[in-house]
Amino acid sequence: MVEGMREKPSRTAQHVALFRALESARGQPRLFTDPYAAASLPPSHRLVVAAARLPAAGPRLARRVERLIDRRWPGGPRASAVARTRLIDDLVTDALAAGARQLVLLGAGYDSRAYRLLAVRAGADPAAAGRGREAVDVYEVDHPATQARKRRLVERRVPAAARGHVRFVAADLLRVGAADVLLAAGLRPDAPAVVVWEGVTNYLDAASVDATLTGLAGALAPGSRVVFTYVDRRALDGTGTFSGVDEWAGTVRAAGEPFTFGLVPDELPGYLAARGLALTLDRSTRDAADRYLTPLGRGGEPAAPFYRVAQAEVVSRPAAAAATAETAVAAAPTRERATEAVPSAGQG
Ligand SMILES: C[S@@+](CC[C@H](N)C(=O)[O-])C[C@H]1O[C@@H](n2cnc3c(N)ncnc32)[C@H](O)[C@@H]1O
Questions:
Q1: What are the record keywords, sorted (predicted)?
Q2: Helix (H) and strand (E) counts for the chain?
Q3: Is any atom of ligand 1 closer than 6 Å to the C-beta of 143?
């Protein structure tokens, strides 16, 4: 995120919400239903979604609207966003089924997994404990400008009883460490967590991506999972040939949030291992589209081969990092006051 954007909510977060709202406006079968995405949009985008939903016009109009959107945002961001959203939904559900009881949304934007994924929200219901469902603690971390808008939306749309499991942590990840702010907000380093860092690394720099991954590996319990997206660096530095990259990069540049960082898939296992993480999955959003869209007859939708989803597991914490994490927890404020104590650099 560039300096000029610091005062304003992220525009690319709104683009992703528009893509999710359009997917949710489709008839079944669709990849997911995000009932909150449309509410995150400015009026002009809401009109687009309303047009796609017009029942009298039928599915053909909805598809025409999507094609218009694909021309307005060329290079595949819409199909990539919906395919990766579904893949990450499944990865989060798997991690929770494997025992994680903490979910971190890093650079959360208008991600509504805390309120829409059954595996997360079912545990938030006070009656759930009686039915043997354990609550999932959710931490939504974002830049203060975007998070302030998200919080207002959530307060308007989600009943208080259905959001008590969510803690908002305002932080500029270019200035503060994700692990530090999470521990200060109450994240437990002794219990497995799943972290989703979706659509963010490409807007950061090498030092902050390094610090975030190293910090998470040092703070989270072994076995915790970090799901993140990245752009293939060869698409950014011109050493690879990928269709659509110039168009997509041009759109985010025009939105004031240019692509600034990428990784090379072949180097990813070693890069992660050096930071205490083991790569367990690495797929392009084109691969995700082949898995989820092609069976629905939608394989022709333009998902990008240079935009990728990876999952890594925390291998083990070096003793020094574990001790630091425990100390941070001992010094952390009580849960109720946690977010107030979190450093929110930038315009916090
Ligand atoms: C493309 S949006 C993705 C949002 C969300 N993860 C999703 O997939 O819907 C990028 C997000 O990264 C966040 N972001 C960008 N730079 C950041 C920074 N320096 N610190 C914290 N968050 C940042 C933005 O505020 C925005 O919410």
A1: Methyltransferase, S-adenosyl-L-methionine, Transferase
A2: 15, 7
A3: yes
Is 0.70 topped by the overall pTM? yes
Distance 109 CA to ligand 1 centre (A): 5
Alpha-carbon distance of 169 to 172, in angstroms, equals 10
- In contact, 107 and 141? CB cutoff 8 Å: yes
Rounded CA-CA distance 84/287 in Å is 10
To the nearest 10°, the Cα dihedral for 148, 150, 155, 156? 120
Residue whose CB lies within 8 A of the most ligand 1 atoms, among 16, 198, 203, 260, for a mutation test: 203
Q: Which whole number is the average pLDDT over 206-228?
A: 97
Q: pLDDT by residue (tens digit) across 60-70?
A: 888 889 999 99
C-beta of 146 in contact with ligand 1 (< 6 A): yes
Nearest CA to ligand 1 atom 26: 109
Show the domains of the chain with their CATH numbers: 74-341 (3.40.50.150)
Q: Whose CA is nearest to atom 16 of ligand 1?
A: 1
| Span 315-330, pLDDT tens digits | 976 555 555 555 555 5
Alpha helices in the chain (DSSP H): 11-25, 43-53, 58-72, 77-97, 113-116, 118-121, 144-157, 178-185, 206-219, 233-237, 245-254, 268-273, 285-292, 319-331, 338-341
- Per-residue pLDDT band for 13 (boundaries 50, 70, 90) equals very high
Does residue 102 have its Cβ closer than 6 Å to ligand 1?
A: no
**Considering only CA atoms, which residue is closest to atom 2 of ligand 1?**
13
